[in-house]
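Aggregate trends can hide what the representation actually does to any particular protein. This step matters because it turns folding into a mapping between discrete strings. For completeness, the protein is quoted in full, as a sequence line and a line of structure tokens:
=====
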Amino acid sequence: TPTHLSQADVGWSRHLGSCRHQRTVSVTVELLHLEGEGEADGHGDIETAADEQRPLWQPLLWFLVLVLVLMGVRAFVVDPVTVHGNSMSPGFRQGDLLVVDRLTYRFRDPRPGEVVVTKSPTTGDLIVKRVVAVGGQNAGIEDGHLVVDGVIFDESYINNVGMAGYFFGPNPVPQGEVLLLGDNRDESVDSREFGTVSVDSITGRVLTHMWPLGGHD
């Protein structure tokens, strides 16, 4: 026997169908949302795995590049030099570690008063001395005092003990050469013994103390 539905029953049935449809759509949207999150998480896992699988040689490569850069800086810009002996005391003493500028003299010649590093013409060892005269000047020592072109210099930074009554020169300095003296004049082997030196033989200019910090008072 066919079932007869009232108008109210038909409306209620339509309402239930609509609710089921809405619930189905809602569940479908939620499932799609969860699947999207899963795909995103999976993509993140892939990126993390890629980071973890990055070749171990890459950090080593950067380290080697850094070492080469530092070696280049040392070769062409600055260089550490250790003082041997006390011929430059009191300002520079045995064991002091100095920062030497290797770049400046590629563009200009040394100037009087600058402390430089060069190879000793007698031993070949690196030595630290002060430029007291350059090419074209006449320099000497009179009664323990430096005299350049007839002008007596007051060198407050030197150790002049034992130099009273000492005379040297004056002698002309050839072009392209410099006259070097140690600040501890009585104990220094310098241009008074081995003569003037070529500016091309000078390694660099002393900038400052690396150790002790601040140098000596």
